[in-house]
Write a structure and sequence with these properties.
This protein is of the alpha/beta class and 260 residues long. The protein contains 10 helices and 9 strands. The strands form 2 sheets. Strands 3-2-1-4-5-9-6 form a 7-stranded mixed β-sheet. Strand 4, helix 5 and strand 5 form a beta-alpha-beta unit. The radius of gyration is 18 Å and the shape is globular. The model has no long low-confidence stretch (mean pLDDT 91).
Length: 260
């Protein structure tokens, strides 16, 4: 059976609620890396005196880890009205100009050469045409502007994927994704120069079942059945009893590139 387009899945998951994203992000707090993802990511972004665009901003979690007073302007976008509502609740530094726009990443409502920095954090795999979005990112960047993109590899959270398969709750994202970390260097090189790669170290080490069950629940439009939840809980709790935790390997990669 052919996978549904990534955008169809994203719309069903995120267009009217941010709850599923919150369930998915919760597992980040069980990272073995002492520096959490958003802190690690923010330490690599130079936002000082720049006009910044984040595409697919979600709930805006990144901006709770950045000193927004350093930026000249900040523009946050998402296709989801629910996410945009969350973004408007952000309280950035009083000196910072913040704009929130609901829009399609492949058709950005901005003039050419508007931004110094574009950020696309774990969002390209939700698009039907990641290449069209990359072309848009290049268009709205000024010459010499920098793009930051994060993506997961195909083996990211393999243990969670195997658990989902075992209980009849497979992830719809990986099969539908039209770009992964393995594909990104080739795609980025078509529109940018100086493509660099850095892998985020660590794994997820979860000592209780609930975050794992919440992650599985976030994959589907329908709630988990009682049997699925019971079977998943039994498998997770068995592993925790035997090994001390439910461990899932990560493959999260950050890419940077410069507009020629």
């Amino acid at each position: 059976m052919e996978a549904s387009p990534p955008s169809e899945r994203a719309i069903s998951q995120y267009s009217t609620t941010s709850d599923k994203l919150a369930q998915r992000v919760a597992i980040l707090s069980y990272d073995t890396n002492p520096q959490p993802w958003y802190s690690w990511l923010s330490s690599r972004l130079n936002i000082a005196a720049n006009d910044i665009l984040e595409v697919g901003s979600g709930t805006g979690e990144l901006w709770r880890h950045l000193d927004s007073s350093l930026a000249k302007t900040i523009t946050l976008t998402d296709f989801s009205s629910a996410m945009c509502d969350k973004l408007r609740e952000l309280r950035l530094h009083a000196s910072t100009s913040m704009t929130v726009k609901q829009c399609d990443a492949a058709s950005l409502p901005f003039e050419d050469a508007t931004f110094d920095l574009v950020i696309a954090n774990h969002m390209l795999y939700h698009l039907d045409s990641p290449e069209a979005a990359l072309l848009e990112f290049s268009r709205v960047l000024r010459p010499g502007g920098r793009l930051w993109v994060s993506l997961n590899g195909r083996d990211h959270i393999a243990e969670l994927l195997e658990l989902g398969q075992a209980v009849g709750r497979p992830s719809p994202i990986l099969g539908a994704a039209r770009i992964t970390a393995e594909m990104a260097p080739g795609s980025l090189s078509k529109y940018f120069k100086d493509v660099a790669t850095e892998r985020f170290p660590g794994d997820f080490d979860v000592p209780v079942a609930e975050p794992v069950l919440g992650y599985l629940a976030s994959w589907g439009d329908e709630a988990m059945t009682e049997k699925q939840e019971a079977d998943a809980r039994a498998l997770v709790e068995k592993r925790i009893a035997e090994e001390g935790s439910f461990r899932a390997r990560k493959n999260m990669v950050l890419f940077s590139a410069v507009k020629a």
